[in-house]
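Reply to dn_fold:

You asked what the input looked like. This is it:
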Amino acid sequence: MRTYTREIQAIIDNVEKVIVGKEDVITQSLAALLAGGHVLLEDVPGVGKTMLVRAFSRSIGLTFKRVQFTPDLLPSDLTGVSMYNQKTSQFEYRPGPLMGNIVLADEINRTSPKTQSALLEGMAEANVTVDGEIHTLPNPFFVMATQNPIEHEGTYPLPEAQLDRFLVKVKMGYPDFQQEMKLLNRFERDEPIDTLESVIGRDELLRMKEEVKEVHVSQPVKKYIVQLVQATREHASLYLGASPRSSIALMKVAQAWAYMEGRKFVLPDDVKHLLTPVLSHRLILTADARYHGQSAERVLEQVKKEVAVPIQHDVESL
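and this is what came back:
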């Protein structure tokens, strides 16, 4: 059983009042938030993706915006528009839903590539451009996008270059029998989300994000990260391995994970634990591997077994 700092445990406990039995999903999403990245939630409908995002925003006391992506959604529906004010005889910027701290991009694969690009520009640059003017997004700015991997009719799958913009990809999965029973009991009379209160505020979160940057990553651990990433580029089942951006992403999420556990240094186990959520959506399988039922997750399990883990003495000595 993992142990977390008091603040992190308070957030997890609060979210778990609504989301039952998904600690890994909660903690990995929280690590992405602390590392300054964004999350892609991929799973079938009805497993709690939207509820998870709402619980996050309430627990941290941030402004929450929800966008339901549809084929007719326009980029301006996200970024906002400039409207002419007759009283002042000037154009005024009317913010769109991206001007929130936590943005739920629901069913991101149901809208056009042009609109997807508007969201991904905001994710990458922390600002949006409207009529030639740049508008800075609020700090913190955190996108949790959902997509349904089952339905493909009327969808626009995200290209690999855009998937790479998400720091982690997580899957909710179905609850087991006991978890689903607990869920029914909890929702029998009330909606727990309606009574959820914040446990930390914006200033506390910003402080935590700055402290994450101070977590030390030793040279042996950095070498281990690079070896893991380079192993994906040489794997026979992969047409395209992980990019250098993946190495940076893996390091930053590992720093956040170590911070969440109250440590000032990253361990190889942190890197191993986070390898799949950070890298699985950044890899492209060969046609032959897909034909034989191979998956990115299985490839990463093989990579973890093949790459030697730094010994504890070497990690602690630097």
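The chain is about 45% helix and 15% strand.
Hope that clears it up.
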